[in-house]
Write the structure tokens for this entry.
Amino acid sequence: MQKYKPLDSQQIPRFSEVKTFMRLPNIRTVKDVDFVVTGAPFDTACSYRTGSRFGPSAIRNASSLLKPYNRFMDVNIFDHLSGVDYGDLSIVPGYIESTYKRMQDDMTPIIEAGVVPIVLGGDHSITLAELRAVAAKHGPVALVHFDAHTDTYSSYFGEKYNHGTPFKYACDEGLIDTEHSIQVGMRGTFYSPDDLKISEDMGFKVLTTPDIREIGLEETGKMIRERVGNKPAFFTFDIDFVDPAYAPGTGTIEVGGFTSYETLQLIRMTKEIDFKGFDVVEVLPAHDNNEITAFLAANVAYEFISILANRVKNN
Ligand code: MN
Ligand code: MN
């Protein structure tokens, strides 16, 4: 049995070779693989700044600094997992419905094989295609959604599909078990006092950034775990959850967010959850400074992979 793991950075320097996520082999296979990292470089459904089509490559570039041992979870990822950089999913620039179809078609063999995808976006519209693929196998999933925004609006400019609407349509299509789902980190200005109510009426629990500042990180982590329980789950992470001081390279900035350290700590608190898929979206390298947003996104994806390794280690 083949075990896929990163290049040894004590033998081959980190700045050499073709950039893949965490220096994993770039092989489009699901055989002998526990997880794949893949890109969805689609950004034509965003409402403000464009450029997250370059997110996957920027995150891959930054990820060459990651090392296999996660100190916070006491887990050495590749003692427990085999993983590859799968390359990117098929997308059609400018055409969201064709993109959704191609993404779902590309993801289905991954999910069918029981392999966990970690998708690098792209704008947040892509998550609807991922949820279609994941729910086709696992049924409606518990969604853990970190974001400054709810992304549960009905339409923009009279069109259904946009980066502000994926979770509205995921609910309508029965892809999410909202009774076990939670939206975390909402903040900023709203269209009306009822914006959060749109999500709550769909069945989501919503924890805003002020809510979390009030109850603290530990309690937030506990609420997420209790909400999801042992349901099959999906973690979607919009980088604008993080304060723009720590993640300036994104499209719809909201000030007053969490630090990168707080963010990683919160993600680690979900390590017992049975995630069937993950994504990290909305990284815009053209607006980044010194790759700090890309480095953070790479670390977010790394924590996701660590969660998978931790579950194998402890089961
Ligand atoms: Mn979002
Ligand atoms: Mn957002």
